Amino acid sequence: MKYLLLIMSAIVAIVSFSSVTIAEEKEPELAELMAEYQLRPHHRKLKFECVMCHEGDDPEEYEPLETENCLTCHGSRQKVADRLKFMDENHTNPHNSFHDGLDLDCYECHAEHEEPANLCQECHTTDNWMNEVP
Amino acid sequence: MKYLLLIMSAIVAIVSFSSVTIAEEKEPELAELMAEYQLRPHHRKLKFECVMCHEGDDPEEYEPLETENCLTCHGSRQKVADRLKFMDENHTNPHNSFHDGLDLDCYECHAEHEEPANLCQECHTTDNWMNEVP
Amino acid sequence: MNKKVFIFVLIVIGGLLGMGSSLIISEVVHVTGNAEFCGSCHSMEPMAKTFKLDTHGGNNRHGFVAECADCHLPHDSVLGYMIDKTAHGINDVFVETFTDVDEIDWIARRENRDEFVYSSGCLSCHQGLLDKTEAENPKSLQTHAHYKKQLEKGDPIQCVSCHVTVGHAGQLRTELNKLKPEFSFSDSTESH
Amino acid sequence: MNKKVFIFVLIVIGGLLGMGSSLIISEVVHVTGNAEFCGSCHSMEPMAKTFKLDTHGGNNRHGFVAECADCHLPHDSVLGYMIDKTAHGINDVFVETFTDVDEIDWIARRENRDEFVYSSGCLSCHQGLLDKTEAENPKSLQTHAHYKKQLEKGDPIQCVSCHVTVGHAGQLRTELNKLKPEFSFSDSTESH
Predict the structure, then answer these.
(1) For chain A, is the Cβ count within 10 Å smaller at the N or the C terminus?
(2) How many angstroms separate the CA of residue C115 from the nearest CA in chain D?
(3) What residues of chain C lie within 8 A of the CB of B72, using their CB?
(4) What angle do CA D24, D27, D33 make, to 5 degrees?
(5) In this predicted model, what pLDDT tens digit does every residue of A8-49 receive, in sequence order?
């Protein structure tokens, strides 16, 4: 009985030690990753961790998001477009544009982990009809 | 101008008189009908007029109600049955009965304009497991 | 001190005490109006339990929860609300403490539901309901027009006159039957 | 009259006056918190108009209508609510009367929405929202769990931090643009 207890304690100790080690190793790794893959200000403000958008435990396997993933929070293409309805009149609503209507994917402009790019600016000077991409 | 006014007044007088007559004629007729076709107490309390259940302007053409008409207010057969759920245990819920389940039409028991009949009592003594039909 | 100043100061002190206690009273009113509080008394358990099954008790997409007092106190004026709240408070504490609440025939009392549920309460949340011009169930437009007409005629009906099972998911009678069965079910043999 | 009795009577009179005026104050607070009242000021017209398009403003099956103060005042305590209500009242009357409200850059102010909408207000209606275990959109369970976690960590986010368009049907910016356009649209020729 005594030996059994001793063995069990040893097992418990080893298991807890190794999990502590993993946690300790993982923490700085996560912090490092989050420093590398920063969020845009409007999302950073919300204090999101990676798993708010990416699925799974292993950051190595995180995939870039599809528009449909964005819409789980943002509702629908129509809802996003409606927020900029005042731009419709001049056909400059980027979410309901002259060229693409509602069919533009989010990542065409909104890169979360790097500086966003303004697709419209590929051909247009947008100073008078558009803000910077948030 | 004077004549015109006179004529118009005459027309107005005649029209108002005849509509008063119609209203006066209609009122007692309606009251008579409502006295003949009384409502059950729980509906009388709600001060319903005929058109709350029957469609159209002519009482001569009023049809008896179908179960579906009752359910426009009462929701669904399931909802009506759920209100008497405590009777399920002994299989005596008249709205979800041993014999008919949810498939009993309202008018089998609930006659609105005459004394209601208890279908169960055709074969059973219901004193110990059912109230009077409201 | 001048006597007038003295009187003034005393009235101001009293006034501040009065306003301070009003604040405390309104906190108390606030805290003692929900199902958590009301349901903590033995006699209100069936009501609280069935409330939680209802749309109004949180059984909805929005996590919306009404409070008992939202329906069971009048909402015409703050004064009326406070008078009723006080009367109910005194009555309920007295009845719960000094009488046998198990004797209360709640099932029979349901007949008088018109007196325990206030349309002014319903309408202080559902402010726009009577002015709706379209509805999933068009019948509701007709019945709500009837409500308005009766109100204008000075011969009102109440919301709960029709919505007889509202607030308790249509399960209050069933829940009350668990404590005090309406029927004995002692003889269900066929008679003829 | 005995002096002590005199003092007592005066304080009681003051107390009654104080409680009476509290009643009147709470009626006033009640009446001055809805879109009808708030929207009657020129500067609040876009807010009131877009509110009416929103679920919270009556655009829903239930004819439910919230009041401006339900979201735009804190609901932690009656005292806090009253203090904020008073401060807003004084500020708004002053600003509306003595300054040029057309100068206010409402579009820019939307950045600080966290300061104008109180989660305690949201949660005093949506009491059960954070405890839901199923949802039409399962993502909401994850994000609401995040809200709770941040709250427990003492590093809270606000409901409107995510629900940026709530209460005004996502149309406030568009409505404000009618009064003061963000863009001139003066040159939309292609550049290269």
Answers:
(1) N
(2) 23
(3) 137, 139
(4) 140
(5) 565 555 555 544 444 445 567 888 888 899 999 999 999 999
Dist. CA A67–CA B75, nearest whole Å: 40
Gap between the Cα atoms of D142 and D83, Å rounded: 35
ipTM more than 0.85? no
- Domain borders along chain D are 31-179
C121's CB contacts (< 8 A; 6+ apart) are: C70, C71, C72, C73, C74, C75
- From CA B78, how far away is CA B102, in angstroms rounded? 7
Mean pLDDT of chain C: 94
Quote the pLDDT of residue A95. Answer: 97
What residues pair up with A124 in beta bridges, in sequence order? D190
The token duo for D52 is 């009416």
HSE, CB side, 13 Å, CA atoms: give it for residue C11.
Answer: 8
Residue holding tokens 């009592």? B121
Question: C-alpha angle with apex D41: D36 to D44, nearest 5 degrees?
Answer: 80
What would the mean pLDDT of D99-128 be, rounded to a whole number?
96
- The pLDDT value recorded for residue D187 is 55
Residues 6+ apart with CB under 8 A from D152: none
Residue B124 β-bridge partners: C190
Residue A127 DSSP SS3? coil
Asked whether the predicted pLDDT for residue D148 surpasses 90, the reply is yes
B84-106 tens-digit pLDDT: 999 999 999 999 998 999 999 99
D145 Cα distance to chain centroid: 24
Rounded to whole angstroms, the Cα distance separating C173 from C50 reads: 10
Q: Please tell me if residue B53 touches chain C, with a CB cutoff of 8 Å.
A: no
Low-confidence spans in chain B with pLDDT less than 50: 1, 18-24
Query: Of the candidates C161, C171, C186, which has its C-beta nearest B45's C-beta?
Result: C161
Cα B50 off chain centre by: 7
Amino acid in position A74: H
Distance CA B79, CA B133 (A): 18
Mean of pLDDT over chain B: 85
The reported pLDDT for the residue numbered A22 is 47
**Which chains contact A through at least 3 pairs of Cβ atoms less than 8 Å apart?**
D
From the CA of A2, how many Å to the nearest CA of chain D? Answer: 42
pLDDT mean over A89-98:
92
Model confidence at C8: pLDDT above 70: yes
List residues bridging with B33 in a β-sheet: none
Phi/psi-derived region of residue D154, left when phi > 0, alpha when psi is between -120 and 50, beta in every other case:
left
Q: What is the pLDDT of residue B133?
A: 92
For residue B83, the chain C residue with the least C-alpha distance is C170
Task: Flag if C10 and D7 touch (Cβ within 8 Å).
Answer: yes
Fold of D31-179: Multiheme cytochrome fold (1.10.3820)
pTM for the full predicted model: 0.86
pLDDT at residue number A6:
58
Cross-chain Cβ contact C188/B79 below 8 Å:
no
Instruction: Phi first, then psi: give them for residue B91, nearest 5 degrees.
Output: 55, 35
Residue with tokens 């850059």: D105
Q: How far is D169 from chain C (nearest CA, A)?
A: 16
